[in-house]
Amino acid sequence: MNGIHVFDDLGRTFLAVTQSLTPLLVLFMVFQFVYLKLPLRYVFNLFAGLAMALVGVAVFLQGVRVGFFPAGTEIGSALGEIRHMWVLVPVGCVMGLLATLGEPAVRILSDEVEKASGGSIKRAIVLLTIAVGVALFIGLGMVRIVYGIPLFYIIGPGYGLAIAMLLFSDKSTVSIAVDAGGVATGPIAVTFLLAIAVGIAAAIEGRDPVIDGFGLIALIALAPILSILTLGLAVRIRLRKKG
Question: What's residue 238's pLDDT?
Fold first, then answer.
């Protein structure tokens, strides 16, 4: 981690975020002049909010780049050198749980689900369900790295099971599950957990960091889909028994 400085390439990070937000700003301005015609105070609030978002996202991404990614790589290298490889499985589960609980997009999805459902689906249940699912699949990903299991042997049956569960799930559950798969692969998971997986694969003899280290994000994307669908089916069965 020597030679890494907090403000290295900060300007490039700001530029990248600016390029991402500019199309949204242009789209709003088009609608503002053609359709919306909102008062100036709303436009001012929008610009102020965009400015804060620009600074916040840029600082966050910079912190991820100089903090999470190098730390994940170093942790992965250290874990890959331990004598008892089975320890990686529970450690991976714990890291997956904590990383998902700290993922901003997952928390936002949980909040939106509670609002959209009128409070019938609690945010804590959605958040915990996604986090537990990701934790289990991170542990499965560690098993894959330790024993060199091909990714397709996990992804193929996993998505086959997800497709089968879709046939018996409510439409609302399916919608939440698919979105949950997307939000779980946020910046914390991608930078921290992926870096750990690559570091472990690089440290274990006979493992290829590219072949065995990558693929973890695909498992993270699959995990919430299965966990939310499982939760939905469990609730559906329970309601049928009560009825």
Answer: 84
